[in-house]
Design brief:
Two copies of one chain form a homodimer. Chain A contains 16 helices and 14 strands. By secondary structure, chain A is α/β, with parallel strands linked by helices. In chain A, the strands form four sheets. The first copy, chain A, has a seven-stranded mixed beta sheet, with helices on both faces. Chain A has a three-stranded antiparallel beta sheet with strand order 10-14-13, with helices on one face. A two-stranded parallel ribbon of chain A has the order 1-12.
Chain lengths: 479, 479
Amino acid sequence: MPVGVKVNPNIVEMEYAVRGPIPQRAAELKQQGMATIACNIGNPQALGQQPITFYRQVLRMLEIPAGIERERVLNGLRRRHREVFQHMNDADFVSDYVLDLCDDILSKLETGLGAYTESRGPMFIREAIAQFVDKRDGVTGSNGIPSDPEKIFLTNGASEAAKYIIDMLIADGGDGIMIPIPQYPLYSAAIKKAGGRQVNYYPDEEDGWTLNRTALEEAFTDAVARGTNVKGIVVINPANPTGAILPEQSVRDVIDFAKEHGLVIIADEVYQENLYGATWLSFAKLLENKDVPLFSLHSTSKGFCGECGHRGGYVEVRNPPPIEGSRLSFMEVMYKQASVSLCSNTPGQVLTYLMVQAPKEGSEPYEQFVREREAVLSDLHAKATMIRKALGRMNGVECFGRTGAMYLFPRLNRLPKGTTDFDYCMKLLETTGLCTVNGSGFGQREGTHHLRIAFLPPKTTLEEVLPRWIEFHNAYVAK
Amino acid sequence: MPVGVKVNPNIVEMEYAVRGPIPQRAAELKQQGMATIACNIGNPQALGQQPITFYRQVLRMLEIPAGIERERVLNGLRRRHREVFQHMNDADFVSDYVLDLCDDILSKLETGLGAYTESRGPMFIREAIAQFVDKRDGVTGSNGIPSDPEKIFLTNGASEAAKYIIDMLIADGGDGIMIPIPQYPLYSAAIKKAGGRQVNYYPDEEDGWTLNRTALEEAFTDAVARGTNVKGIVVINPANPTGAILPEQSVRDVIDFAKEHGLVIIADEVYQENLYGATWLSFAKLLENKDVPLFSLHSTSKGFCGECGHRGGYVEVRNPPPIEGSRLSFMEVMYKQASVSLCSNTPGQVLTYLMVQAPKEGSEPYEQFVREREAVLSDLHAKATMIRKALGRMNGVECFGRTGAMYLFPRLNRLPKGTTDFDYCMKLLETTGLCTVNGSGFGQREGTHHLRIAFLPPKTTLEEVLPRWIEFHNAYVAK
């Protein structure tokens, strides 16, 4: 027998409910033949969401550079021999716009998809991200502060970036980072792993999960009283798991709060395209000239892109703080971390480039791109509305906040005494096949119960399962 | 001014020479117009190595599943209208073998490249890896112990896997991991970041960088005397940076040593295809029925694949040890780490699948695949030989060990007094454009000087630069 090994207790104790016991039970049930519906995770293409054709056309072409010329030849043959190709249609061919773009990307990448890039990612992609951020935030000329490509890192999804930052900020066991409750468990897990302290703050559920100075100050004061050295604050906007979108004042409150207490802001803004008509403002925009350190995360996994498997993402940094006791800058130390991982994956990098540079208006792929984008977003919106409606027919269920991101986080007010939302979600899964995550997996105010549902399954699936959920629910709470 | 922030000192102090000051200087010189030659890093496609067509054909097809049928249509049109396609050739079309394989992969992936997979990677890929390992090690029927797909994790390159394991093993500041000197600085960096102790052991340079029990026991005893709790040993075979390939007895010695002291073996075997005719034996094969925990790393970045940018890799685990004081198994805790990262990138996963499952003998892509594979490997071998020959013409330079991996690690015996290998490499870069890494970046016996050169540039480049290096060298040491 091998001897028992003492393993880093922070990792042993770390939890990640999104892939925890309920999804694991769902995997078992699926293997036993049950039709399960994976609403536990924001993984849209696993539930039938189609990739954006434009993105995939480019990725496809880049894998074999010689294939670009071949497509040009095929386009030429098709023009000259209409009859030969009569059973194929435009969708079977690649537009000159895409082919030219691929040539352009390959010339800028220099070494194709097969080589390690600069550890932060290629400069031309970081420049495109900076331009995207500036355009998004209305930075022009002297209006606003431009994003700096030197302070952008491409990463394997946004998670990797979050871990880099948290690993740096936690210098010893007394250091803490504020996270919203409920939160996306990446943050609690990363803080736990780094050996730091999780400092909870509580958005106001009944005010649509908004934030205010009082709630932030309370959490901060309480942490300081326990001897915690608070270093930063995580804000997820639009939020995961609640789906809520913060109003301007909440964002401003966080910035002022961070400035007053010398905190770093980690702004998880990966759902910035999942707005469904609501207004959203970035931290970078509202930061203005305040010298608060800001790390803004974005990803190709969400929005209308939904390319989770390709693991594209980036972090954009503003006002990186000086490091106490070192001549190295914050960016230099972050660069060392990226170096040890060599670079993020190149298809994910290119996808990030495409995400921040949509096809030009009027170009060949433009119309289809817009159509596909709108289809994804309006479909998500419609599905959120269907679920909200169903929640309205469940006894003792309330759901607060504007609908953003990919999630609803209803509160379950009338669970039978002695049962938890974990019990409820497990039973819901076993009865209906619907796999959600218990609110306790994200953290919640003591005495409350919730669940998170990703509004991703096809409408037909929802039409079928929602009545069964309502029935299940009303029977469950009547016990 | 933002206030100075105290950053995790382990990360501030961490070093990674492969992307350290000399490569950074090379980047500056390149920007100033100098023709630099990046021999600092094992990044073959950055230096002109061509990707294996078969791999890229599959990756290309998977990005747009509808494109598979389109290729079948094109193949049919070509058969019927030879004259229309007369200026295109076979290489412009995709074989039925590849198209069928793509259909098969997509049906097994279920959700395409765009969805998160199981955190360890899809089961069918882990099964293929297990089969590859068994075939490689001659496991058949009752002969040998088969690899277990449940104990395989796909990761973004092998580096991610190494970090998972090291982060788990370092439970407190007294824990240490043995690493060879010289070593690949991923290991020193990961141990440093985790807050553990680096325990150096010294392969015998003049005996071709082989290992023996005496050297291992000395290092162990010395570490224990300093109060270090040694948890594991890293072995890189074929080695980075020395390129040396361990003989069977060295591998057996490590296994016996690890067994006697209850250590975990981390076997970095990413260069297992870079052998140039030499014999190599895996740790898994020689482990036989000994219950020593083994973590074997492999990657798509090296070998003849050389797909660094795609970030494919895996770790295969044997005899995972029980965890002291926890009911969770080692694999369960490792799974939690993978979960927090969601999954590795899907193109990298598929590439790993292809790496462990070459096209079948006699299939359409087989001949080209073999031709390309042999071309890459024989080219690398020829380039290593060219550099070895040049080293032989440099005064006071010796280079030990069988040639494996992608590196040579010559010893510089006659550096002028007061100068270091760092000075030498910097001057070599500034004089000739050749970017190597100083031996001190990998660690070396006190009083010795080395450099690592990756034998990757095109032969024509080597023909041009090697005489200039010889000239530089002999003048430098004559000072």
